[in-house]
Amino acid sequence: MSYFRLRFIMYKAKVTIGLKKGVSDPEGANTLKALKLLGFDNVQEAKTIRTVDLLINGKSKDDVKKSVERMCQRLLINPVIHNYKIEIKEK
Amino acid sequence: MKQKDVKVAILRIEGTNCEQESYDAFKRLGASPEFVHLKQLLHIDCNIDEKRDVFDFHCLMIPGGFSAGDYIRGGAIFAARMKSKLGKDLEKYVRQEYPILGVCNGFQVLTELGLLPGIDRIMTKVPDAVLNINDSDRFECRPTILKHENNGKCVFTNKIPKNDIRLIPSAHAEGKLLFPLDKQKEYLEKLENNDQVVFRYVDTDGNYAGYPWNPNGSFSNIAGICNYIGNVFGMMPHPERTFYHFQHPDWTQTKLSDVGNGRAIFESVLDYICKRF
Question: What is the per-residue DSSP string for B202-220?
């Protein structure tokens, strides 16, 4: 166990997934409409963004980032419509 | 091969629906369908006698539904589970020209798998297309009218004449087919040149008319596409829901017939399998 602790560090990764420019966002548009109906006339735009928080073991921040990149490509995003941002912090 | 010997796997995981109608469609045409849980193909949590292999079947069908709760994106989790162990098998299966059908959620699974649009290769590592949220931001559930535009490549529609107009119901919230935005026209051109566009949404006169005839805002009104070989086919509307004529909403007002507009899709693929294998 101590050997494991020496080699790996626990990181917190936050993946923020948004829609690429030009992709319609009906959920955001509907939210904006409802907010305006409620009287929030000052709202100009509503965008939907998904966040995935991960707790992840890794040797280094770079190592973890590479791993999360692969997760995005393989499951978390669809490159046709999504862009994403990864933030990593030591836990 | 005789029709009764054609084995069809109706794949399911939690959240699949319409698998019974899909099973019945093949069964009523004399084939031998079987409900197969994905775990049976992945050989997880099942007895030895329940284990199956994709090559045990002449056709795979992924029915509609909300597999794995549509979490992440429609079909993404189903596709990820399939890819985890079956990626190479699926590629081989398609290369050997066995047919795969994806309806509604099944179409989403096939795009997430990278098997569709399949313009110049069998399977891409990352998806090349997406079935995005409907423009209306609603679950659109009603009859839709489709125009068959394939010239004969798609093995699932070879019994349907070109330009034939059919009523097949849609029921989905994420059916807007999109390709990479900066390459939409390029993709469309390739799809049309390869004869991969199978169905488009139209109005009662057969014209492209946008919403509400196109229920989701799909690019170029596309409702169904096949891969470049013609043996992987995905469509958002549900052909298994109009197997019989009396399943059509206007059946009492139209001519008496037993055949529904969706049946030809199942007949076509069975005909293809019987001749090909």
Answer: E-TTS----TTTSSS--GG
